[in-house]
Amino acid sequence: MDWTEVSIEVPAKDVDKAGDIAQMVVPYGIYIEDYRTLEKETWEIANIDLIDEDLLKKDRTKGIVHVYISPEENPLEAVAFLSERYNAVGIEHKIDTKQCRNEDWENNWKAYFKPMKIGERLLIRPLWEENVDSEGRAVLSIEPGLAFGSGTHETTRLCLETLEKYIEPGKTVLDLGCGSGILSVASLLLGAENATGVDIDKLAVKTAKENGEVNGFGEDKLKVIHGNLADKVTGKFDVIVANIVADIIILFTSQVHDYLADDGIFITSGIIDVREKEVTDAFEKYGFEIVARHEKSNWLCFECKKK
Fold it and tell me: What DSSP line would sit under 183-226, residue for residue?
């Protein structure tokens, strides 16, 4: 079945923020057209200065974010949601849609996903990249598939860098909205005793399990649950991480005490800066104190503990 490609044209100065918002609300892989530094990047990447004439004619004042909606989803809902988000942060935008084949976008975004170092101890390797020098880091091999979480987005990087501070042998981890399973698998690679991932998307659950297996973790180490928030979860955890949107974090904050060990840490991200006060008010209301606040490109990550 055909997918729907959603193309969002925005002023070039806003393309990075527009891409961040699109990736959070439509987590099926994206790619961005931004030609402001075309010549410089072409030389740095390929060491050539011969560029196709059609590329040189591209409008440097505009950027285009491409996102993809699966056949099972309603593209009109996604378009409405994206438009609402862009209006909320003041980004002028024009949205078009068209039908496309699955393989068209899969190959487009894979071209831009390369091995990357995260924090001090991790290196993320896409499965199609071979002969990668780990430089002594733990290598997290990943196939994002159609689930959010490849390590490229600021919110995922913030969570990975924060997890590195708290994960040590014997720790248990709960990953809410686990997507590709990247945070769960990273926790295990960093030494966690076990990790439990939860996602409402069946495809994400499948992808997370596969990524666990690729990295050598079976169900004895990585348990992935198809469910809504922590409805099907039992027990308490040393670390709870939720890299999801602000509305869901606010909702889940009222439940965290039931699952977090008394001396545990609650790590949240996926929060755009304009929603900060709503989220911090929820922390205060439900008995959490903020231990640390991190920010990358208008996206926030919080470390919280029980008061």
Answer: HHHHHHHTT-SEEEEEES-HHHHHHHHHHHHHTT--TTTEEEEE
* Dihedral angle sign, alpha carbons of residues 32, 33, 37, 41: positive
Tell me the two tokens of residue 279.
């989220």
DSSP-assigned letters across all residues of 132-178:
---TTPEEEEE--TTSS--S-SHHHHHHHHHHHHH--TT-EEEEET-
Name the residue ranges covered by the structural domains of the chain.
3-110, 148-306
Residue 174: predicted pLDDT: 98
How much is the pLDDT for 51?
Answer: 45
Using CA atoms, how far apart are residues 191 and 221, in angstroms rounded to an integer?
11
Give residue 44's pLDDT: 47
* Res 284: pLDDT: 97
Residue 50: the pLDDT is: 46
Q: What is the pLDDT, as a whole number, of residue 69?
A: 79
**255 near 230, Cβ under 8 Å?**
yes
As a whole number of angstroms, the distance between CA 13 and CA 17 comes to: 9
Residues of the chain with pLDDT under 50: 41-51, 146-147
pLDDT at 129: 82
Architecture of domain 148-306: 3-Layer(aba) Sandwich (3.40)
In angstroms, the Cα distances linking 176 to 63, 182, 242, 292 are 32, 12, 5, 20
Answer yes or no: pTM beyond 0.70: no
116: left (phi over 0), alpha (psi -120 to 50) or beta: beta
Distances (CA, A) of 146 to 79, 188, 270: 18, 22, 18
If one counts every other C-beta atom within 10 angstroms of the C-beta of residue 5, the result is: 19
- Residue 143: its pLDDT value, please? 73
Task: Classify 3-110 by CATH class.
Answer: alpha beta
